[in-house]
Amino acid sequence: IDIVDGDSSHRNIQLLVIFIWISIYFLLSLDRTQDFYLLLEAGALSRGAILEGEIYRIFSSFFLHSSFGHVAANVLVFSALSQPILRLVDVSRYLNILFISSLSASFVTLLAHPCDLVVGASGGVFGLIGAFLAVKMARNLPGSISFVSDTYILVLVGFELLSGALNERVDIYSHIG
What is the pTM for the complete model shown? Predict the structure, then answer.
């Protein structure tokens, strides 16, 4: 793996994704009833809607969040991991990791999740965690890349998996996917 020299486009892509997540959340919040039906109408992942041919939901659910805490948690983890990963791969590979992970998470959720509505970017964010861990395990990274400690990652993954197991509103299947 060659270390990619970071430039402004790396920072811009990270900020663009964060801007889209927050903008969509606040646009939907203007309704003040960000509930099941609003999220469903906006493109949440729904097994029933997918079976009716609304395949776009496999991807659109990545941009939706159910609460401010939900979008904030994804932004925080995403921000912490994006910079080290963008130093390892170019922007197109980074976006591939993010979106393919999100799609994989959607498929696992559709196969295993008992609920009929799922939103969030956690699947893509966990894909970044997986990519980062894979690179860290395969290669000893220099400190300029690997400022995110192994302990931090393990605590984060443990917390997310535990919260998913204890909170029925968290889609642990997406995290695993």
Answer: 0.75
